[in-house]
Amino acid sequence: MTTLSMQAGEPMLEFRLAYLRAIARSWADPAFATTLLAADDIQPLLVEQFGLTTVWPKLDIHLENSVNPSEQTLWKPELTGGWIGMDDRFEIVLPTRPTDGATEALAAFYQIFPDLLGPVGDVEQKPASNGVMMAAMPTDLGIPGGGADSMLAFGGVVLRAIALAWTDANFKEALLNPPGGDATSVLSQWLGYNCPFNFVIQFKANPNLKWEDGKWHQKNADGSPIKNRIVLNYPNAPKDEPLRPIALTSYNNTGPAYPFTC
């Protein structure tokens, strides 16, 4: 007897494919759009509805749609040739400096979070109902690769920022309370890092993320897991329905500055 299985593919590409389907469905189904926007983390929904095979268990991915029309992501081809909207957002938890053993603690933290996404988990999938085995997606797309403009490189900068925040109180204050609520300029000023992503960067201290007994305590006081968070601005459906397929493909090609949608 042959057991069919769905093989997990490259995580970022897998997410993009499932996410694009979710956006397409939400444009046609207002009830689903409401469910999508209400989710603290859309990954479980993508697993359930669209066969996402890999998730980031230490990351929440949330969709946001401002009530202010001037802050919404809208399809405006007549004005800009595509989409307009606010920057998406990285929310990164800043771990507490240990009283001792800080060097090993930092290395152990990097082992958990070599980038802000954290470790990847494969989702157990049921065999495809049509009897077809899904092959793994290609993994040579460089998503995320190790180049200077990659998520992995950004993870290295975050590690440097953590180390410096543990050492310099002025930097820590600037990192947690940056001008305009965006630490992008702080990373540029102090670490010479020019962020290639069109994302607001925010660091948030969490005293529960602490090094104890040779390991990181990764739960909040209520027992919930401590996670990084990515907030993506929801692309509103174009009013002209026949143009929605074009708008969707444009959203899917916004460029490397938007790693979760390009």
Structural account:
By secondary structure, the chain is an alpha/beta fold. It has one domain. Helices cover 35% and strands 16% of the residues. It has helices at 11-28, 30-38, 43-50, 77-80, 102-112, 151-167, 169-176, 184-191, 244-251, and strands at 54-55, 59-64, 74-76, 82-84, 88-94, 121-122, 199-205, 210-212, 215-217, 228-233. Strand 8 and strand 9 (215-217) form a beta hairpin. Helix 6 (151-167) crosses helix 7 (169-176). It comes from Rivihabitans pingtungensis. InterPro entries: RNP_Burkhold. This is Ribosomally synthesized peptide (Two-chain TOMM family).
Total domains: 1
| Uncertain ranges | 1-8, 127-144
What structural category arises from helix and sheet content?
A: alpha/beta
Shape: globular
Order of helices and strands: HHHEEEHEEHEHHHEEEEH
Spatial extent as radius of gyration: 20 Å
Give a quick rundown of the structure:
This protein is α/β, with parallel strands linked by helices.
Give the secondary structure arrangement, pairings included.
Elements lengths: L10 H18 L1 H9 L4 H8 L3 E2 L3 E6 L9 E3 H4 L1 E3 L3 E7 L7 H11 L8 E2 L28 H17 L1 H8 L7 H8 L7 E7 L4 E3 L2 E3 L10 E6 L10 H8 L11
Parallel strand pairs: 2-10, 5-7
Antiparallel strand pairs: 1-6, 3-4, 5-10, 8-9
